What we know:
CATH topology of the largest domain: Rossmann fold
Number of helices: 11
CATH superfamily of the largest domain: Response regulator
Number of strands: 5
Amino acid sequence: MSDRPIRVLLVDDQELFRAGIAVIVGGAPDLEVVGQAADGLEALEAVDRLEPDVVLMDMRMPEMDGVEATRQILLPERVERRTVPVRVVVLTTFDLDDRAATAIQHGASGFLLKDVSPQRLHEAIRTVHAGNGVLAPTDLAVLMAGLVVPDRPVPPAFTTLTDRELEVFAGVARGRSNAEIAADVFASESTVKTHVGALLRKLGLRDRVQVVVFAHEHGLVDR
Length: 223
């Protein structure tokens, strides 16, 4: 495991807020603030130049907002050029913000409220750096349900899921926990966890947050 600190880029149009977050993030020995940006355009340049591991992204900014910046940072052609994966975490003052939901559709690893505690912020950065989401799927299910999401054709990979994996997929898509799904399908939590891992691999998804997005985008919720 690398001893290199997790490199963090801060993106927010309020300089005072950035300064405060920089102090909080820098207070953890395994985290390092490598740069700051005041809008989405600056963020794009900074990501290419600084190669951060995690971007903390504000949603409402001039020039280019956080939704568009997130979309562009996580475009497949940009991702393929990088030697280091970049994760984006949305910061917002609004609970269950529809802009945050749109950013997650574009590949953000989750969102946090701006009044998050320092400990929770540290944990969130470590979590997304490890490749996991920081938004409870139940919250995302509520967010996605409030958006008008055009159905896309279901990828062929979805047909490779077993009957039990389909049951588990439906539970995850509704934001249910492993314990709740286990009770629904009369299986152990460890078995459900195994099925979740299998369906993530088959569908090429990173985490449970992406399962919720996938389900809504392809019209698979409660199917």
